[in-house]
Specification:
Oligomer: single chain
CATH class: Mainly Beta
Structural class: alpha+beta
Number of domains: 1
Largest sheet: 10 strands, mixed
CATH superfamily: Lipoprotein localisation LolA/LolB/LppX
Number of helices: 3
Strand content: 35-45%
Length: 197
């Protein structure tokens, strides 16, 4: 049972957990557009939380750690229990994904999403979604935010919901810090193999 979990189920979970970062695996028809408002009242944000993903009749639960230096860097680390399954680091020009379970990585541009999922996606749309800012999405996608908690001089959503036929994502934000983010590490281990297209 242990080997089955780590050799077959975990790679499938990793594939679906990319959704937490890009929404692309679970929502292939998701169309991103530029944000309608690009003025952020803070310079950076760091938040942690849990995600519940329902896909292909399965439910996946994970924890995430997100760091966003506005208009510069977006980093997310995904864990299932105490096991880190992956990291992603994106800038306006570059996307890096490190798959800890399959020991491979992608280091390139946003064509990653076009090759795998047929999506034309950019950094600014992802940033807007994870910060609760307006972004236009396809009509068959329900994107909403619930609750608001005050943090110092700012307020932030408690729950991000995204749903479409057969798939859903619920992100619950547990802790938010503004204008003070930890250093992030997205170094590619030497023995990992590259994902090339």
């Amino acid at each position: 049972m242990y080997n089955l979990f780590f050799k077959t189920l975990i790679p499938r979970i990793v594939r679906n957990l990319l959704f937490v970062f890009s929404f692309s695996v679970l929502f292939p028809s998701f169309l991103f557009a530029q944000t309608t408002d690009s003025t952020y009242p803070y310079n950076s944000i760091h938040y942690k939380g849990s995600a519940k993903i329902m896909a292909e009749g399965q439910t996946y639960n994970c924890q995430f750690n997100l760091v966003n230096e506005i208009d510069s860097l977006l980093y997310i680390q995904l864990n299932i229990g105490a096991i880190e399954v992956g990291r992603a680091l994106t800038t306006p020009d570059k996307f890096l994904f490190i798959n800890k379970l399959q020991q491979n990585y992608y280091d390139g541009d946003y064509s990653f999403f076009l090759h795998l999922f047929g999506l034309d996606i950019d950094f600014y749309a992802i940033q807007a979604i994870f910060n609760g800012f307006p972004v236009e999405v396809s009509e068959d996608i329900a994107l909403s935010y619930q609750g608001t908690t005050g943090y110092d001089e700012y307020s932030f959503f408690d729950v991000l919901l995204c749903e479409t036929e057969g798939y859903s994502l619920r992100l619950e934000v547990k802790k938010v810090t503004f204008n003070e983010v930890p250093k992030v590490n997205a170094t590619i281990p030497k023995n990992y193999s590259a994902i090339n297209f």
